[in-house]
């Protein structure tokens, strides 16, 4: 029997949502549509709450006009998902909920928080006895309504209550819900951040493929849409390839031109790609494909620099009015292979960052499970994630994803085309930063010897930073400004 609270409100809801802008209201409707859920809702400006209740009577929402009323309408242990503007808004709502909730209750932040903020918030909220869960939610507004991919962190105790609720609303891929308990405190938001970083790389690679095809073959955007639609039937099958075909096919109603030709070529960003790269720099993980994707957006968004640079010298093809390939079909196939190989690198780098983050922050993250929950609901959903799951099933502690047998075979198949595409882009002066940096990363990993040995020599020369030798243990320094003999030294690596 439901108990009655001191405020007189009967606690009938098993889950609550705070923040009813597009993401929160869709998530609340998704929750309400699943059997067994009764959803309490609250928004700072009450008109949004009233509007949602009026628009969706079928959801049987339990609206609240104050945090106290919201808390009183929730069964214990209370569980509430915050979907508000990340940052100060999140902190304000957490503080209000901490005042209204009791030990054992659960506060979930479903916004795009920086994982270090989540670690800080989890620690602070835990001291009150209330559980705090940072959950990455991917899939945009449609995902929130129909089934997102959900990446929750937080305690094992919270997962017991939250797990069944989140499973009920998550996307389903091949019969499995796209949600798993990622790890403690900030682990969920960390994985969501890397998901977004991979998304940046994937999008940039697709954009480079489109640019090379268009300029090399002279095909129209609609014709290139057909190429992407065809690619979507094979190993590249993914949401991003699918929507690329849709965007390229779109005609602008006002001008009759392809929409892609009337959109200003300056890409925006909300910051999660930059977070992925900043974190990778701190962890010492080379996510070069993701970084190039972030930088490519930055470069595009400096019109004044681009304007003064337009006259800089370029290759001869420019002067001759452009460049075309002799065999368009063969060229397109090479680009498909280069795209697949570069995409393998982007995911490999992203998983490497998750592995390093887990080691740094003490999380136990099942990388195969992460790849599985990205198969549905989220922006980077792709058939190829099954191959990643298989690779980690076979070798859970794989040091680098692209060394798994399936990817070695794919890279073997693709590498000549990949090299050709990168060489061509450099020769004809078409920027392909994500393609080229991915190839350089691949060749760097493969190398028997790297010129890092010379860098160590230089560091020892100007800063006595010492070096190791390949033929004996110990740490050494050459007396560069003396007689240049070698001495044993303290390791100052
Ligand atoms: N949009 C997407 O595709 C997407 C995808 C994944 C994740 N996310 C994340 O999901 C969260 C919600 O996104 P959104 O686009 O739906 O909304 P939003 O525009 O980011 O935020 C608007 C909501 O935040 C509330 N809010 C802001 N400051 C507040 C404060 N100090 N106290 C209480 N409430 C406050 C607003 O309440 P009022 O109505 O009172 O102003 C409103 O409900 C964000 O963290 C976003 O990063 C968004």
From TrEMBL:
Pathway(s) annotated for this protein in UniProt: Carbohydrate degradation; pentose phosphate pathway; D-ribulose 5-phosphate from D-glucose 6-phosphate (oxidative stage): step 3/3
Entry EC no(s): 1.1.1.44
Gene3D superfamilies membership: 6-Phosphogluconate Dehydrogenase, domain 3 (1.20.5.320), N-(1-d-carboxylethyl)-l-norvaline Dehydrogenase, domain 2 (1.10.1040.10), NAD(P)-binding Rossmann-like Domain (3.40.50.720)
One function term, GO molecular function aspect: phosphogluconate dehydrogenase (decarboxylating) activity
Alphabetically ordered keywords of this record: Gluconate utilization, NADP, Oxidoreductase, Pentose shunt
Domain 6-phosphogluconate dehydrogenase C-terminal: 188-481
Highest taxon in the source lineage: Bacteria
Subunit structure comment from the entry: Homodimer.
Name of this protein: 6-phosphogluconate dehydrogenase, decarboxylating
